[in-house]
Amino acid sequence: VDPSGVGGWHDARVEPYGPIALDPAAGVLHYGQEIFEGMKAYRHADGSVWTFRADANAARLNRSAIRLALPQLPEELFLESLRQLVAADQEWIPSGDGESLYLRPFMIATEAFLGVRPAREVSYRVIASPAGNYFGGEVKPVDIWVSRNYARAGRGGTGAAKAGGNYASSLAAQLEAEAHGCKQVLFLDQFNDNAVEELGGMNVFFVFRDGSIVTPALSGTILEGITRSSIIQLGRDRGLEVTERKITLDEWRDGVASGEITEVFACGTAAVITPIGRLRDGDEFIGAEGAAPGELTMSIRSELLGIQTGVVEDTHGWLTRLV
Ligand code: PMP
To answer: Which atom of ligand 1 is nearest the CA belonging to 227?
Structure first.
């Protein structure tokens, strides 16, 4: 790590997958100094392999690095790491419907030092794993559990960074959700009128009766999802009004009850877009059981997935060829 905050990166190589050696006193093991990214590479019909908005992932990794006092990684090195890994492991990239190669770049503090301070030695790596079609064909709305007992991240904390610690903090809430028959957990800002933040691993969108779209504003506590920003763009391309603003749990409940809110969906790299079925708040359910996915939800979903998989034209220059 050099004093500019940009890593003096060296020793780049592709190596066989396997355990990595870490000193038992490595900073990552004790103070959670770790950040990561999640992205997918899709094989297009002509055999070429592309990833989606890699520049945005590189920029987010570097924002996370600043917050976690880790060195930044130049975008060219980030892209090169993806290219080399994917080129070395091409047989792992599936080409079936909705299938992809999930890419997980991450950076960890490897310096052995027990005092609490940023590590001066770090390691950046990328691992990859074939990923099936998230829904295995049919897209089904998922039920969401309202987390009243746990917050994910507070203001000024690390919520806007993609840092492992945020996910450690959401595990207990996820268990609680599953114990109540829900697939994902919804985090609220309990100190701000129960403003809707995000799900454990996805951002949230609301479609109103007049066709306008709302997503919670970036408050510093939620992750700036790349799928989120792409949906904002695609919505505006369609001439829809898309607003980033505070939306509270009460507005959600009342909006669904009155029919003012017609669709709710979640989005992220893994599932692209997931319709939200019911919201469960303790013993109360918001929304109807067995409702079909919303029309706009499914239409934006197929446009976005189409761009990623190369069957819809990429008019925004969002795709980067890896091999
Ligand atoms: N919020 C959280 C907490 C997440 O983990 C993710 C997944 N990275 C998202 C939102 C969605 O982000 P993206 O669209 O970049 O995958």
So the answer is: 14
How far apart are alpha carbons 215 and 109 in whole angstroms? 34
Of 287, 150, 283, which Cα lies nearest the Cα of 206? 287
Alpha carbon of residue 35 to chain centroid: 13
pLDDT, tens digit, 9 for 90 and up, residues 120-179: 999 999 999 999 887 777 889 999 999 999 998 888 999 999 999 999 999 999 999 999
Instruction: Write out pLDDT tens, residues 101-119.
Output: 999 999 999 999 999 999 9
Q: How far apart are CA 46 and CA 120, in angstroms?
A: 44
Find out whether the beta carbon of 141 lies less than 6 Å from any atom of ligand 1: no
Whole-angstrom distance, CA of residue 4 vs CA of residue 237: 39
198 lines ligand 1 (CB under 6 A): yes
Say yes or no: CB of residue 197 within 6 Å of ligand 1: no
Looking from the CA of residue 37, the nearest atom of ligand 1 is: 8
Q: Which of 110, 102, 126, 122 is nearest to 36 (CA)?
A: 126
**In degrees, to the nearest 5, what angle opens at C-alpha 107 toward C-alphas 104 and 111?**
150
Q: State if residue 7 touches ligand 1 by the CB under 6 angstroms criterion.
A: no
Name the CA dihedral angle for 283, 159, 299, 139, rounded to a multiple of 10 degrees.
-50
Q: Write down all domains in the chain, each with its CATH number in brackets.
A: 27-133 (3.30.470.10), 142-309 (3.20.10.10)
Distance from the first to the final alpha carbon of the chain: 30
Closest protein CA for atom 7 of ligand 1: 201
- Report how far residue 144's alpha carbon sits from residue 278's, in angstroms, rounded to the nearest whole number: 6
CA 228 to centroid of ligand 1, rounded, Å: 8
Which residues in 134-154 are b (16+ Cβ under 10 Å) and which e?
beeeebebbbbbbbeebbbbe
